Every structure is written in structure tokens, then in C-alpha cells.
Amino acid sequence: MIAVETLLRIAHWSRDLSDDERARAARAVTEKTVQRGAYVCHLGDRLDCWVGNVDGLLKLSTVARNGKAMTFAGIAAGGWFGEGSLIKNEPRRYDVIALRDTRLALLDKPTFLWLYENSAAFNRFLVGHFNERLSQFMAQVEFERTLNATERLARNIAWLFNPVFYPGVGSHLRISQEEIGLLSGLSRQSANQSLRLLEDAGLIVVDAGGITVRNIRGLERFES
After folding, report:
1. One domain, residues 117 and 157
2. I need a surface site. Which of 14, 44, 51, 161 has the fewest CB within 10 A?
């Protein structure tokens, strides 16, 4: 259980709920911390909660039968995931790994389903969330097939600034070059080279604390 004020701070989807819906959701949320490198869940797990990233960085990924690893998405602070598995009552279709020490918020499954069945505001949120996530996964398939390393990295950075997933994200993201490489399937050295190209193109500024985006549309359309 957390305070309603805390829910409003960590869960942007709660802001349009009614007072009663918001209070019910706050009572059903617990928090936990996972260490860097730990699995939040494995492919095939059945979890009993909807998961939000309060503070940290997560990677949604899987390994194909041929041994090739594929990253579906990075989840920055403020992002929520796993709603499809709860609604369809099916096992998770990907691994979720913490790329740094990460604090999670867990909304229990009965309350998630109650909101899904009773709250118009929550359903409006889910429709927008599903549409954006589908676009992201379809784009990721295109990235893997048609884009080079720097172009893929540019798109992956842009998704971390997506206003649907992260309202109010601003222009700066705390992230290391190693973490960017892990999200993009690149070595740290390759990620560093790609970041320099994007910086030379005037799209980003890289500093010790992370990345500042100067041109989000340019990242989404970058071609080298």
C-alpha cells in the first residue's frame, strides 16, 4: 500500500482516475527494488501484478532459437509494462532485466483487472498505451532489418523520450553509454562511436550525466 500522493507521482495513468479509483489503486500497490543485472521476470513466467519503473532502467528482450538476442524495448523511469499478459492471462513472452539498480511499483492483478473492467479513464489510457507499444514493436522489427547501428541507436534513444510512455520527460535522460549499448545491441565502443555521430549531427549532447536531446524528430528520422 502506498499513499495516493505517491501514486500520483509515480503513475501518470492514475491522474485521470476518479478519487475512489485512485484510492483503490494506491491500496493495491507495493514497491520493491531489484539489483543491476537481476531478472524482474523470465520468459514464460506468470506474474500476478502490473509493473511500473519508479526509478531505474529495464530491458525487455528475448533470445531466439538460433541464439540471437533481440531487445524489444527499454523501459525508463515512469514506464509501465505487462498489461497484455495480465489481460490475456498468458505467460510473459520476454525477459525483463534491470540494467541498473531499479525500484519497481507493483499493482496487484485483481485491482488491475477491476480498473480494466470498471474505469473508463483507465481504459482510455490502455488503448493509447497499446497503440503506442504496438507501433514501437513494429518499428523495432524494421530497425533490426533495415537500419545500421547508428540509426538503430538513434531510434532507441527517441523511444525513451516518448511522451505517451513518459509524459513530462523533458529533454535530458540519465543514462550511461554502456546502458545505451545494451538497449541497442551494441558494444560500449560501438555505442560511443554512434553517439558521437549523432552529436556531430546536432541531434544530442552527451555528458557524464546522460543525454540531452536537441532534436527528437531528427533522431526518429536519422539516416547516416
Report:
1. no
2. 44
Query: What is the widest separation between alpha-carbon atoms in the chain?
Result: 51
pLDDT digits (tens, 9 = 90+) for 116-141: 999 999 999 999 998 888 877 776 66
Residue 37 vs residues 40, 56, 211: alpha-carbon distances, Å: 9, 12, 22
Grid coordinates 513518459 are at which residue?
166
In a domain, 15, yes or no: yes
Residue 62 and residue 117 in one domain: yes
CA distance 202 to 221: 13
What 8-state DSSP symbol labels residue 129? H
Q: How far apart are CA 38 and CA 114, in angstroms?
A: 30
How many domains does one find in the chain? Answer: 2
C-alpha cell belonging to residue 108: 496487484
